[in-house]
Write a structure and sequence with these properties.
Structural class: alpha+beta
Number of strands: 11
Largest sheet: 5 strands, mixed
Helix content: 25-40%
Strand order of the largest sheet: 4-3-7-6-5
């Protein structure tokens, strides 16, 4: 976090750069919220009138009428909305439970406490929940998430190896690639920052020394001991997630990988029989042949990006995640920049 803070400060002070706001092309969770809010406020509506009212809002320019129609059909099947004898749409019994809850009015997720279990043993609780495959520390140990039960607010984990101070830091919004690249530059340079406290300055110097000695500034993939490798793409959150799925779904079997542990958006630990140069070449070759980001998702995978995604048809959530959660082109560019020799 120290490196990230320095990078953000330097980008603003030296270059007057602030991370741009990027609107989602398919904010399907908000689409659900606006649909249900409209029905709650007017009571009932003709399907065509409802579609006209909602889809003309600027946020939904990237949503196709057929996608909205499919969403309404799905909500009818799940009883979130109902169709009257006259053909109008009203809120159904399933939808009533959602819209009548005080949490409905907030479009963004609020922090809800989840209990963490190792088998049947309760370890503690967390409010920021990592997705399966990610690691976090709790009760002085490192844990890898096996399963998240959102309905019962439970997280199932197993013990993982690594430093106890390794935390999952994926919450709080995506990180831009330029911030990650600036962090790498901060490690490369010898610049002293007058605004750092003595303790922070010492930590930065130790980090720079470690970066030089480990070779993490010289290659995207470096040995981590045994059959493990570190992957440092120096890429933003969307590009990092793209690489994670490329490894898990496209390269696990061909490269003999038995484990991919992401620490978004900073690094991954990969274990298997692949060597560093071999794996990097395979990543670059696979990226060149990916037809569309959706090809990086497993057949049944539909990850959530928004608060209400769980109420939507999986195929729509999947498409929205591919468009707004992944970035193949950006990953290629980030890896090319990371592969350039250090000055």
């Amino acid at each position: 976090m120290l490196l990230r803070a320095i990078a953000i400060i330097e980008l603003y002070v030296r270059e007057r750069w602030v991370e741009p706001v990027k609107l989602r092309q398919k904010p399907v969770g908000v689409l659900y919220h606006q649909t249900m809010s409209t029905l709650k406020s007017i009571g009932e509506a003709e399907p065509a009138d409802l579609a006209r009212h909602v889809l003309t809002l600027p946020a939904f320019r990237g949503v196709e009428p057929e996608e909205y129609k499919a969403m309404l059909q799905y909500l009818l099947q799940t009883d979130h909305i109902q169709q009257t004898e006259e053909g109008t749409l009203i809120i159904g019994l399933g939808g009533e439970k959602v819209v009548n809850n005080f949490r409905f009015y907030a479009v963004f997720k609020d922090d809800e406490e989840h209990v963490v279990y190792n088998g049947s043993e309760e370890i503690g609780s967390i409010t920021t929940v990592p997705p399966p495959g990610y690691c976090f520390s709790l009760a002085g140990k490192l844990w890898k998430v096996e399963e998240v039960d959102s309905k019962h607010k439970a997280v199932y984990v197993k013990s993982s190896r690594g430093k106890v101070d390794t935390l999952w830091l994926g919450a709080g919004g995506d990180v831009h690639t330029r911030v990650m690249q600036k962090m790498r530059q901060v490690l490369e340079e010898h610049t002293l920052y007058p605004y750092l406290a003595p303790g922070a300055a010492n930590r930065l110097e130790r980090a720079r020394r470690l970066a030089r000695e480990s070779g993490l500034l010289n290659s995207t993939v470096i040995p981590a001991g045994g059959d493990s490798l570190f992957i440092l793409p120096w890429a933003g959150s969307k590009q990092f997630r793209t690489l994670e799925r490329l490894l898990k779904h496209n390269l696990t079997d061909p490269m003999g990988l038995r484990q991919v542990v992401p620490m978004e958006p900073y690094y991954m630990v990969v274990a298997g029989r692949a060597g560093a140069k071999e794996l990097l070449a395979a990543i670059e070759a696979e990226l060149a042949s990916v037809p569309h980001p959706e090809a990086l998702l497993a057949a049944s995978e539909a990850p959530y990006l928004g608060k209400y995604d769980e109420f939507l048809p999986p195929e729509l959530v999947r498409r929205a995640f591919a468009v707004d959660g992944l970035d193949v082109t950006g990953l290629v560019e980030a890896l090319e920049a990371a592969g350039k020799p250090s000055d």
